[in-house]
Design brief:
The structure is a homodimer of 304-residue chains. Chain A has 304 residues and is an alpha/beta fold. Helices cover 36% and strands 28% of the residues of chain A. In chain A, helix 1 crosses helix 8 (247-261) and helix 8 (247-261) packs antiparallel against helix 9 (265-277). Chain A is globular, with a radius of gyration of 19 Å. The interface between A and B is medium-sized, with 33 and 33 residues. Strand 9 (101-106) of chain A pairs parallel with strand 3 (25-27) of chain B, so a sheet runs across the interface.
Chain lengths: 304, 304
């Protein structure tokens, strides 16, 4: 099985409105609730791809109960969350359908206690025994040390389990030094890490900082991958209207699947680019569209 | 005790942001959850004023459970909701603190089934036995007939219980014909009912349509009351920055308290105007500010 860790889970709520007009009232139907947090989204895509997947991290309160209830019917996905005293945070996306843009409201996660962290560390070590790979995803909640991902990367490596680290800021800077097998920063996260907005330079710099491989989604410019086998770019066909919501999590899922199946880098990247372009929402994609796009992805090797 | 009916309850969530900027991300702390729906807010103010209060209507699902849990610790307030299969809707208020304005997102309530409506009707009849007054508040959820308030007004009158009807649109138009003791439409609801934006004409027209008394909040122009004892206006002192959120529900609570205690109209209106100006949020007010303002409210009798 593949393990995904989401320390800062969320119950995601989406409202659709024709247009968001500040200082007015909007009727929003029933809204759509989804289980959220990067690692949860990655797990849902992996499970849809046919991989046995286990989710862990934290969930608590009525919102945590709802999150777990929404995950319960998902085939091939097993809930191994550690319960917290504090409720799981919510996020709200207001999608303005006429303009096609989204406005986000992210609640701050409640603080994790040291007893909860200890319980999670034990759960994590237990779950690594039997994991083919592990993904450490998203932001850290209050109460969790900024070096937590570095610690979790080291623990996975000691257990011989390959690690994908998918976060930003200081947790990424510290985590990458613990030598994860793969990082997947977006352009902003990569610039924050390396100080460079030149993607080829920045991905290779990120490799030198400790990551075995670095894959960065660049929107219409496709996926750029700095790997031990070379520097690759994968571009999906068709008009690109910005990255669909959840595209990054689909990329992470495809890369993990490729890692576990040990497929060659060009194939992993084709799969990731097709799945990314076929994303319909965080944790969800259109399988038919993905299958249609896959043979049309162009993968090219670039000079370093 | 005083009974309040809220057929379209809500779990109200408030986010504070410095400014609401469409198409961007906002960090919103933990958010504030409140039990919501007009009748619930009216009941919370009545209970704070010292009245034994019973809330009924519908609540269901995780959001309904949360609503009830938030009401459980309120002194002098008793929960007599009828459980629904469908979850209680949410509302979201995004308060932009720099500009001081609010953007609202209102979910549509889920449909009430005929079995749930029947259960509510029985509960309502039981609760009227022992009620000093009843308030019928807010919009109707899907699945409830547009003439429902007219039916509930008639039932209360048959039981000898005075009725406040606080709604708008067609439910108000039908309900007022059943001769409630009091209606409290805002300026828009009153214009929708009577076709007139001239408040003195419109309040008196609303009386002729069946309401024994009509009170309309007019923002900086105070409260206008068309009563059997005459036409009155009550204006609270001080700079008025628009109506505070929940002001209308505080007015309804003060009017119900005055009805039950049979205080003279000018005193009822003074109390309502002071409480309205001291509202801090739906269902909440500042008692010290209300006490300070009360002697400063100007009540004048107007010619019809």
């Amino acid at each position: 099985m593949i393990l995904t860790v989401t320390l800062n889970t969320a119950l995601d709520l989406t409202y659709e409105v024709p247009a968001l007009v500040p200082h007015t009232s909007h009727r929003v139907g029933h809204g759509t609730e989804r289980p959220g947090g990067r690692g949860v989204n990655v797990a849902r895509v992996l499970a849809a791809l046919g991989h046995e997947t286990v989710v862990t991290g934290f969930a608590g309160g009525p919102t945590g109960d709802r999150l777990r209830a929404l995950l319960a019917p998902v085939p091939r996905l097993t809930d191994a969350f550690v319960a917290t005293e504090a409720p799981t945070r919510r996020t709200l996306a207001v999608v303005a359908t006429r303009a096609g843009d989204t406005t986000l409201f992210d609640e701050t996660g409640a603080a994790v206690t040291s007893a909860e962290w200890t319980a999670f560390r034990e759960r994590y070590v237990d779950l690594l025994d039997g994991a083919e790979a592990v993904a450490l995803c998203g932001s850290l909640p209050p109460g969790v040390h900024v070096g937590a991902y570095a610690d979790l990367v080291r623990t996975a490596r000691s257990a011989g389990v390959p690690v994908l680290l998918d976060t930003g800021g200081e947790p990424l800077r510290r985590g990458i030094a613990a030598r994860p097998d793969l990082v997947k920063p977006d352009a902003d996260e990569l610039a924050g890490l390396t100080g460079s907005r030149e993607p080829r330079r920045a991905t290779q710099d990120a490799r030198r900082r400790g990551a075995h491989a670095v894959v960065t989604p660049l929107g219409p410019d496709g996926l750029l991958a700095a790997t031990p086998d070379g520097l690759w770019r994968a571009v999906a066909p068709g008009p690109v209207h910005g990255a669909p919501r959840g595209a990054g999590d689909s990329v992470a899922a495809a890369l993990l699947a490729g890692l576990v199946d040990d497929t060659p880098w060009p194939d992993r990247l084709s799969h990731a680019a097709a799945l990314s372009a076929a994303s319909t929402a965080p944790g969800a994609y259109d399988p038919e569209l993905s299958a249609d796009l896959l043979p049309q992805v162009r993968v090219t090797e670039e000079s370093a």
